[in-house]
Specification:
The structure is a single chain. The chain contains 5 helices and 4 strands. The model has no long low-confidence stretch (mean pLDDT 77). By secondary structure, the chain is of the alpha+beta class. The termini are far apart. It has one domain. Helix content is 35%, strand content 17%.
Length: 116
């Protein structure tokens, strides 16, 4: 199946994504990744607060929509889009920061020291 709108306009796609919800529909994160990669999309995820009242996202580039954790914000952007996000930091430092912010067993003093 060809999607002429995606091929022609290369829209920026922002969505909440969840492996559990996709599985109930008979799909997977890998299916989403394959579909969007077929059209040349790159992936980012938001490290900032979910459901925030602002559009101040802190984006990290990821290689695939397959992501540790449950529900998260996925941004898919075509490299030729004129609406690319500001250059995201490399995925390692933001990912470590994201994990530490959500870790339950890391002492608060250590989190503050590692992520500010």
């Amino acid at each position: 199946m060809r999607l002429a709108l995606i091929e022609r306009f290369r829209p920026v796609i922002m969505t909440e994504i969840s492996a559990a919800h996709l599985a109930r529909a008979g799909d997977s994160l890998e299916d989403v990744g394959r579909f969007l990669r077929r059209y040349g999309y790159n992936f980012h995820f938001n490290l900032g607060p979910q459901h925030a009242m602002t559009e101040e996202f802190e984006l990290a580039k990821i290689w695939s929509p397959k992501h540790p954790g449950g529900l998260y914000d996925l941004l898919a952007v075509h490299p030729k889009s004129d609406r690319r996000p500001l250059p995201a930091r490399g995925p390692i430092v933001p990912f470590v920061r994201w994990v530490l912010q959500r870790a339950k067993k890391v002492p608060v003093w250590l989190k503050r020291r590692l992520i500010g």
